Fold these 4 entries.
Entry 1:
Amino acid sequence: MKKAVNIFWFRRDLRLDDNIGFYKALHGKHPVLPIFIFDTEILNELPQDDARVTFIHETLQKMRDKLQEHGSSIALYHGKPKAVFKEIVSKFNLQNVITNHDYEPYAKKRDAEVKEFLSEKDIGFYTFKDQVVFEKDEIVKNDGDPYVVYTPYMNKWKEQFNADEHLKIHYTNEHLKNLVQHSRLPNLKLSDMGFEKSSIKIPEYDVTPTTIQEYEKKRNFPAENATSHLGPHLRFGTVSVRKMMKKAIAQKNETFWEELIWREFFMQILWHFPETVDTAFRKKYDRVEWRNNKKEFECWKQGKTGYPMVDAGMRQLNKTGYMHNRVRMVVASFLCKHLLIDWRWGEAYFAEKLLDYELSSNVGNWQWAAGSGVDAAPYFRIFNPTTQIEKFDKDRQYIKNWIEEFETDQYPEKIVDHKEARERALSTYKKAVS
């Protein structure tokens, strides 16, 4: 008779401590078999040297090493989740699957399929809130409608927030004896899945008191190394959002704290309005007649538009998988307004390249730049990519760092004239939305 087990399914929560679903699983009555599935539905769209796949794989190997000290490990699988669970059910006496909520449209569909399959076998499927403080419809207007403007959402968020209740840390270390005692669970190399190690490395996050205290003062200047690099770590759950909120509150930095709340704002927007992945939140903006010039799009992607801040940002992205937040706004505005290229093209390119790619934030920010989203900049607000340099990179330090041929004959000519492109954008948008 096979021994009864519960599974904990790691996904966007790649840490052993302060992981609510993992904590709950370890308190169940059956030993816990930890698993991770490299989902082919997602991986098949990615390049062989994708830095995020390398990061996930390396993180899991460190977690496996840690659990092997406790006589256990993490079983790694490669395939479609439902097919993987069919295989697991044939080998283990599975009682329950425990995991943490995921809010993206594909994840909801995947979880519904897995849950249906498991229920046919009388196996429980339980999920818990872990990657946010407030989720789904926990922060809504008094009439139950979702907020579509950030500031009132943020005010209600803070009003309902209770640090003792919402930032309780769930320590798991003393409960690791409740794992399945088997340290040789299935493992995978990157090459087993058709991947190779990326040369791009996800940087460690920096949430020292100094970074948090100086965040507001320095965050808009791309030449300063003043951002936390928390994005990928929150995305893949290598840090707990509760611990990060605690740090922000301890340093009494409202701006840093509110950036974490922005993330939850966009997540609840995606939850309430999943169609905004493909369509404008403000429907009339889908009438904008995009030019979608492929040659200009290539210039934008390669950082060869002749606008130094745009080009520096795109080259930074292509080389490192990261772009400074201030520059992201300039780059996105340039694509949508100066070039009149569909925001969905830019969103897809960022999704391919960004180490901290998060569907809800990426869609939310691109729609903001295009003027079509919730709480969006009005369409007639068009960033001037040249005056942005004077404000935020006056000494051209950031630009010179990323554009070797800057101020030489090799640097490309401007692909559009700012004044003409601005007037064209205003005319095109006005026609669409009036």
Note: The two ends are 70 Å apart (CA to CA).
Entry 2:
Amino acid sequence: MFGDIARFLLNTVFTLFGAALLLRAWMQVVRMPPYNPVSNAVMQATNWIVLPLRKILPGGKIDWASILAALIAAAVYEVLMVLVAGIDPTIMLPGLAVSAVLDVVKWALNLIIWMTILMALLSWLNPQSPAMPLLYQITAPFLDPLRRILPRLGGIDISPILLFVIVQVLLMVVTRVEYSLKFIGI
């Protein structure tokens, strides 16, 4: 029972932190203003690891320091999960590295799902919410191409539903790849 609780807590904490790191990188790509309260909260939560990494990886259009920080967080997460299971992590290092990369991919895909769900819900419940411009700007790179393809059905935008389905399928593929690699011992 302790192992289940520990795995749940580790998964929750590292998924939220990894998502914050990826959101930071994502906000830089879409040029999110730093004075936004959400941007400010994400920056404050992640500065302690990103700013030192910026000395090694200078910023540009892509925030490589945040992405590297997410990879480091995923590697620490994988090592801690193996330790909770009572296994020596040194015998699983190549597999842990691959699992860490796949964790970052899963965090990014989950972040897309949650941002899309939040945007869709707010657009129905409170379209005048101060968070709407932020959510629209973050989800636009994914939803705009789908909006060009899909017709509007009586004024209803179904592109978030299609994006949700596409990302869910990608999550299934990534999860299957991760289990397959763990099954063969990588």
Note: The CA atoms of residues 95 and 186 lie 4 Å apart.
Entry 3:
Amino acid sequence: MESITSRTNPLITRIRKLTGDRKYRRREGVMVCEGPKMLAEALRWGAGLETILWQTGTHPPAGIPQGVRQVEVPGDLLRSVAPTETPQQVLFLARLPARALPEELTGSRYLVLDGLQDPGNLGTLWRTADAFGADGLLLLPGCADPWSPKTLRATMGACFRLPVWEGKLEDLLPRLARAGLPLYATALGEDTQDIRTLPLGRAAVVIGSEGRGVSPAVLAASEKTLQIPMTERCESLNAAAAGTVVLWQMGFGPVG
């Protein structure tokens, strides 16, 4: 176990940059996570751990893989580098998984996010997609960074279990076609169908951005638009809430 006390130590400087700089995270291929629960999930699901920072006096659990760098730091130093104001005794670095769209989509239920910009909504939908048995999230351009600390916290460990891929619409469409998966969008249009009436057991469903909804290009590429029934006095749902309804319907709604 190493010990670091300086705020200018190269590792501390690197963690600060990883926490705040999206491009640097991508270039380094590393994400910053925090807390014993997240670490337990990372260990359980075989995440590629690189470095663990322990607050002085914390007793590491058994099962840390050999080769993982472990560093003890004072509480004030951990607080200075952690992405939250009250860190939970441990912070760790893990390698990013593959992010590019796979050549073949082998699952049957995908949630497509189109310009979803709030990291909390993204993380919540990631966690919900995992809970309801989706096969992955497909992120189109303009979405929040799935590997930001705020997004990762909101996943509650789902980031280690359910894949998230990023790609352009023109690359996604042929993959959906080869897999025989229709693309549906949550939006109002001439062909809008009540979400309860359409089998979603094999489909990719789009949730649009919080402010603009589904983009025109994605709407044009979608086979149908879906409507979530609600009282007349309510105009719309939060993106995370709408996505939760969609994911439940995909996992537990009619199959045919």
Note: The two ends are 57 Å apart (CA to CA).
Entry 4:
Amino acid sequence: MNIEELQKKPPYGMIAILFFGAFVAFLNNTLLNVALPTIMAEFDVKPAIVQWLTNGYMLVNGILIPASAFFIQRFTNRKLFLTAMSLFTLGTALAAFAPSFGVLVAGRMVQASGSGMMMPLLMNVMLTAFPVERRGAAMGMFGLVIMAAPAIGPTLSGWVVEHYSWRTLFEIILPCAAIVLILGFFKLKNITPNRDIKVDVFSLVLSSIGFGGLLYGFSTAGDKGWDAPEVYGTIIIGLIAITTFILRQLRMKDPMLEFRIYKYPMFALSSVIMVVVSASMFSGMILTPIYVQTVRGISPFHAGLLMLPGAILMAVMSPITGRLFDKYGGRILAVIGLSITVITTHLFTNLNVDTGFYHIMFLYTLRMFGMSLVMMPVMTNGLNQLPTSANPHGTAMNNTLQQISGAIGTAVLITIMNKRMESVGAELAAKAAASGNAPGNPEAMKELTQQALLDGITYTFHVSTYIALVALLLALFMKRVTPQKNSRAHAKKMEPQTE
């Protein structure tokens, strides 16, 4: 079956299986965070050690996603999905019955080796199965899957850990993963085009060191500090490796990751907007829980409930946004969504120690509504300009940039918050000392620290407002890419250069 015939009658049953697999994998990503203190107590490990359950998972994902373009081109979608789901199921079983902390970490990393391929593979299948004029709706349903899983993950995890063992989290995932694997074995067909290309081992090594180093360095900067050798050292090594990797890809006949796709202006613009939006989006997802739990003193479970409506709304809006994209294009949605994001982010700068629970919930939910109008339309508009042969590279590039920009945005915003908190804390302490009311008791110190933290959070939301404003200005330059413009003539831009 050629692509034209496939796009007239997309394989909805097969795509549903892929969606189910992706949902299980994404749900797993957010389940474990709440359980980390319990795991620390059971295995008697320190916070820096237990973090490897999340850092190790993230690093394996960071290494595999850039390589996904090669795997998607080299292997059939059926073989790739079954391999990924088998690894994920094996890792889940290892983690569920882990007798030691080391086995648990190994199980998580095996899980990541499977889940790291799920998003690029699913996106590539949808880009192949749906024509450009129907991709918005298809990508909207994909957005529903990837947003719904993280939305229910923390709340489900909190309830499970409160009533059962942390192992139950993996025991819930295990049968679901097994069912997806069995369904995939019997129902999946090959629809994506393949080429007999060989892996360039040196490119794979450079990619692993480069992207893995950057992700690890920026992700640990908030905890270790920027002056820690393992932070700036891994970032420097990562930058050198990525620079060498890019130069090598530009000279290769069959690059592992095709950087010439940035010759397409709308794809290049969408990448820049997504990087900026990701950095701004993470401010709300990180700063809001810190404010709610530390400044307002709200319990973790209720903090999760406060953020749940926003996450659910973002998931529900995804398919609606997809249909609106097909009808009106990406620019109008992105401009409206980013305008809402800029306004609501600015309103977060007015938080104080007495801000009401439902007021915070409303602001956060409205901000998530704005974000729901941005991510998928911007990404899909950029991908629509690429020829079919470049889809694996486009999806791999987008997913890689989202991971890296999320890690960088998190590290930078946390650093800004901490620096501001320290300077304001010092000023408040100096003023108290000058007035003869130096805080000498724990309650006074707690209040001073709370005020300094609040100032640090609101100041960081100021910075995030300007970041979102940059994305809004960039969105004004978006142009709708029609099916006629995505012609074979565009593929000439992708002609490889010989080494």
Note: The chain has three domains: 1-197, 201-251, 260-499.
